[in-house]
Each structure stands twice: as structure tokens, then as C-alpha cells.
Amino acid sequence: MDRVGGALREAALFAPIAGLVAAVLVPVAVFLSQPRIESWRTRLNADAATRADVGAVALLLPSAGVLWVAVVARLGRVFLTAFRHVGLAALAQAVVLAITTVAAYGAFQLARRFVRRLAAPRLASWRSAPLALVGGVALAGTIAFVGMRAGDSQGHGGVLGTFGVLRKPELDLAPVWGLAGAFIFGALGATLFSRRWWLAVGSLALGALVGGVVLRKTAMQFEASPSANVIDARPGLARTMLRLLRRRFDRDHDGQSALFGGGDCDDRDAARNSLARDVPGNGIDEDCSGRDAPPPPRPPPPPPPTVRQRLLAETPDAMNLVVITVDTLRWDLHYAGNPRELSPRLDRLAAQSVVFDHGYAISSYTGRAIVPLMTSRYPTECWRDRGHFTVYPRDNVLLGERLHDAGFRTFGAASHFYFQRRYGLAQGMDDWDMRAEPSGGEQETLSADARVADRAITQLQDPRNASQRFFSWIHFFDPHKLYVDHPEIPPFARNERGRYDAEVAWTDRQIGRVLDALDALPAAQRTIVVVTADHGEAFNEHGMSWHGIELWDELVRVPWLIRIPGVAPQHIATWRGQIDLVPTLVELLRLPPPAASARDAFSGVSLVPDLFGAPQPERPIYVELPEGPFNSMRRSVIAGGWKLTERGSRRFELYDLTHDPGEHTNLASTQPDRLAAMRALMEQVRAGLHPVAEAGGAAGE
What is the pLDDT of residue 530? Predict the structure, then answer.
């Protein structure tokens, strides 16, 4: 990576923020000029009691601040979990904050008086105040460090244990350091101004000249720098300023700029930008790829009549459907080759099912993956808002709605607040049970999957649900960070991956309980069972330990099992994408698909021929992550064992997954012909999409 170029670009993007800080601090610096400070020093030297008081405050204030933060955080968590109603929790937290602040102020005043009386002779010197401040900061740092060591990454471990959250491996403090750097440089400029105005003006002029040159180069050649991916993907002041500059220089108001790597090849035409859909064959390069898109790939040929005949003859009529989705579940379970025996129940299910060995999610984040999975439409084809916890309106037609309208009884259970009805994920569900949801701040620090299994089992055993064709959707959440220890399942290793695998093993047990309850019902003999995931998880394979910001295989390759009455178990080696899941289920349930021209048309195709020994040719797998509040745009296309990823506008990486499944060697510069072919394929796939406008955004973003 171009470290020098990246540092210069990042400094140039910090420069405007530092200038704003300096502009704010200059009046303060003038007010705190040398004559005024000398006046205060003279006044303090004449009053030993005041000097002692200042020293006591300097010694105690940092530690008091640290303790106040710890107490407020702990009490806030208690009150957030004491109420299921968000408004009551917020009101209780506000009251507690006010009471705690008043009590903390009173305790601080008592401590100040005690210290002043105890150490008045030592604090009476003018020089003692800075030393007391240094000692106070050191003491505060020690308290925070002790709390960080005593607590865990979830903030448990007593009052001071709150600081344990600083041990999170995925914690990115770059925004904090960036703001601190901007403040330091701004304060330095303000200090110079108050002492030697000509030196400050000269320094600022030189800095502005250098920053302007680097900023101009950043504007014109940002995407050419290897460091651009890092700046564009990492949250912080540099990316914030980058987005502001792109917005400021977006002349045609299409959401992209021709400068600062914005991806707009024609900033005078709002119909042309890298997010636009390229209409094939019209001679116009709408998506700024450098060429007009070729025609979309032809749909696969219809399956031979024997496939339809076997479907009707070998599977029960009027089948039911159970779909189990697991949050953040990687593909590499025990049945897929993992030496750790972390998934015995899923291994047993795999032996009874059709297993797609190379199954790919539609995106790498729940808010961009679940509704596309349930609609067979890509994220840019789904109506949604711009929020991180994306809200989907009723314009989208989910699987639950289709089956409800076809006469199915639809029910399900989940535990994460994002699955509340107001976000749109549970559209079409007659009975959507969220009673397993933890309260408030315990959302990700308490295990909920056992309670989700309880709710799902209760629903399956309810005569109202079993008296007709039914669709049950169960979403398990525990493998998502933060990881919770289970005494019944010791960690497989003393690291994050070991704790994650233990969570997977725990969820595997809960899935087993649901399957046992289902298999005990008469309806089991005519019920399809699907198990898959919304996305995977990274464990530092590419320098990150999280998900939702990149499209590496560890984030988008997922397990995919379908147990179908009458269909023999098998492993399908052809690489397939989740976009095809819903069309497959609709055909298995013998329901008509929407017309290709319909507003709710599928973007995927049915894989029923795969199930009956008449596999269709491999289709390109398309994965996308539209830009959001905490992530930059990412796209990937996978075909023939090759994977092309666009990391930002017109920045491509090429990997040979057959020989390099870990995506370690980027072949974009050494395989130009393959790169060109994969880029053309991505253009071809995107030309067949039907992007819709976000709430408050442009189509295709």
C-alpha cells in the first residue's frame, strides 16, 4: 500500500478540520494571552488558599470524570434493561443521569475540601498545580486501565468493568485519534497566533499551500492511490471530509462527484455515474465503466419436462416450509470440513439434505441481506431508506407475503430488535413472536437463541398453525458478536474464533431442538426445511474482524441446506447464489412465480433442476453492498472460479478462488484479459438489474 501517499491524503483531508478548530480556538488563545496569564499568576501567588484549591481540583477532576463516566454507563445499562418500553427507559436514564450528576458534584466538592486541607502546604505553590494535574491524569488513566482489565469486552465486571469495552478487537479508535490530531494542530496554530502572529500566519500560509497541492492531487487522482481503499472504508474524519467534499462538488446532484474518487465520469449529466444502470446497446456508458454494457445474460433454458414430472410425482402435494436463518454463520461448519465438531445437528441435517457446497449470500450485512434474500431481489432493487438499520416499506413483496396470500398460515420468531415489524422484515407474517428479545443494552450481551427455540417450538405445536399449510421462519442471533459464554459448551480456543465456534455450537443445539419438535409432528413428512445465513464473519483473514464493510469470501460464503421430502440427499458443487432460493422454494411449493415484467419479479431463477439431476449451467453470482452510513460501496461478481470485487468506484481486485480461496493474491494487474472479461461480466449482470430509488437517495445507490 502507498503509505506515504495515504498519509499525505489523510493529512490534506484533516487540514480543513484543523483549520476550523484553529479558528474557534484563536479567540480563546487571545483571551489566554501571556499578559492575562501573568495577571492570574500574580493574583494566585497572593492567595495561598486559592492556589491550594486549584491544585486540589487539578488532582481530583480527571479521576472524578472517569468515575462519573463509569457510574453513568453502569446505571444507564441497568435502567435500559429494566423497561421494555424505549420511552420509559430513556426517561429513567435521563432522571438517573441528573441525580447522579448532582450527587457526583457534591461528592467532588467534599473530596476537594478534604484534599485541600490535607495537602494545603504542598499545593500552595504555583508550580504544584501542573504537577497535580499530571498526577490526576495519571491516576485517572490507572483507574480506567484497572477497569479495562477487570471487565470483559461486553462491559461486565462491576462499575469499572464498563471500560472493558475498550478491549474489543474490532474497536476502531481512528476517529478519536483523528479528532485529537485535528484539535492538537488547531490548538498549536492558535497558540502561535497568540504569541507570534506573523509566525502563525506564515505557518498557516505554508500549510495551506502544501495542503492545497495535496488536496488538489487528492481530488484529481484519489482513486489511483492504493491507500484510497483504506481511507474510503475506515470510519473517521478523513472519510467524513471526503464525503462532504464529494457532495460539495457534485455538480449534477446525482449523488456522485467527478472529484475525490466519487466515480462520476460526467458531472454535467445526472443519468451518468458509477451507480447508474447501464442500458445495454444504446451506445451510452451510463455507469462510467468505459464501455456500453453488453446485453444481460440469457435466462437458462427451460428444464426438460421430466424435471417437472419428477417434482409432481416424487414430492408430496401441499408441502409446508420451515426456513431457519442464522445471523453471522460462516460456511465452514464441521460437515464442510471444519475439524472442530461444532455443528452435530446441522451435520445430521446435511446428511438428509441437498447441500450447496458453494452458496453465497447476497450481501455481507443483515440490513442489506435479509429482505433481498426473502424477495429474490438485490439490495439496489429493494425499496428502502438510507439507515444503517435499513427500513423496508411495504413496496417490497417478501416470501411471507406471497405464502400468506396463497393461503399459508405464516408465523415465526426472532430476538434482535431489528426484526421488529416496524423495520419491514416481518411483512406477511400472521404471528411474529419477538418475546425472546432482550431489553435495551443487553441486546447483544445476553444469549437469546434458547428462548427463540422455545417460541418457535410453541408455534409449531400450536394446532392453529398445524391445521393448514404453514410457513415458519426462525431467525437465530447468538453467533453474532458479542459472544456469550455457555458453561455447557467450553470455548474451542482462547480467542475470538474459539468463542464464536462455541456460540455456533450452542445455536446448533437450539436448531436441533426445533428440528426434533418438527419431526415429532405428522406434518414433518411434507415439510421442506431450509437452513442458511444472512452473511458470515471475518476473523482477521484480511485485517478485519467484523462484517458489513467488505465482501471477502469469509463474509459472503454461507451454509445452505434444503431438506425436501422425496428428494434424495446430495451435494451440489455448482456455485450458486441466495438470489435463487425464493424462486426455488416457490416452485417446490407448486406456486406460480411473478411475471418477469411484474413490479415484484424475481431476479433469481429456480434451482429445482439441480435437485433432480438436470443442473442448469453455472450463472454469475452477484453480491453487493450499497453505500451506507458506516460502509462504502462494494460489488463482487463470481464466475468460473474467479471473483472480481469493486472496492469503491472503479477500483477492482481480481482473485482466482480455485487456487487462492483465501483471496490473498490480487491478480488485477497481472491478468488484464481476465480482468477485462470479469468487468464485462459485471457490467452484463448489472445491466439486467432494476434499481429503485432509496428514500432520500438516487436510484441504484
Answer: 98
* Amino acid sitting at position 8: L
Q: What is the DSSP letter of 18?
A: H
Give the per-residue pLDDT at 214.
63
User: Could you tell me the CA-to-CA distances from 341 to 333, 347, 439, 501, 538 in Å, in that order?
Assistant: 8, 9, 32, 9, 20
Average pLDDT, rounded, for the chain: 82
pLDDT, tens only, 518-557: 999 999 999 999 999 999 999 989 888 889 889 999 999 9
Rounded to an integer, what distance in angstroms lies between the CA atom of residue 305 and that of residue 288?
43
Q: What is the rounded radius of gyration, in angstroms, for the C-alpha atoms of the chain?
A: 30
Element (H, E) at 475: strand 470-476
What digits encode the pLDDT tens for the residues 363-382?
Answer: 999 999 999 999 999 999 99
Whole-structure pTM value = 0.77
Longest dimension (CA), the chain: 103
Separation between Cα atoms, residue 229 and residue 551, nearest integer Å: 13
For residue 439, give the DSSP letter: P
Q: Which helix (H) or strand (E) holds 129?
A: helix 128-150
Q: Give CA–CA dist 237/13, Å, rounded.
A: 8
If pLDDT is split at 50, 70 and 90, which confidence band does 38 have? Answer: low
Q: Which helix (H) or strand (E) holds 204?
A: helix 197-221
Rounded Cα distance, 590 and 309, in Å: 12
- Calpha distance 328→547 (Å, rounded): 8
- CA 309, CA 312: separation in Å to the nearest integer? 5
DSSP character at residue 142: H
The pLDDT, as a whole number, for residue 700 is 45
How would DSSP label each residue in 146-170?
Answer: HHHHHS-TTS-STTGGGGGGGG-TT
**Do 417 and 440 touch, CB atoms closer than 8 A?**
no
**Which amino acid, residue 154?**
Q
Whether the bond into 482 is cis, omega within 30 of 0: yes
Burial class (CB in 10 A: 0-12, 13-18, 19+), 79: buried
SS3 259: coil
Residue pair 326/476 in contact (Cβ under 8 Å)? The answer is yes
Residues contacting 243, CB < 8 A, separation 6+ = none
Task: Tell me the average pLDDT across 273-292.
Answer: 78
Report the 10 Å Cβ neighbour count for 534: 26
* pLDDT tens by residue, 219-232: 666 666 666 666 66
Q: State mean pLDDT over 77-89.
A: 56
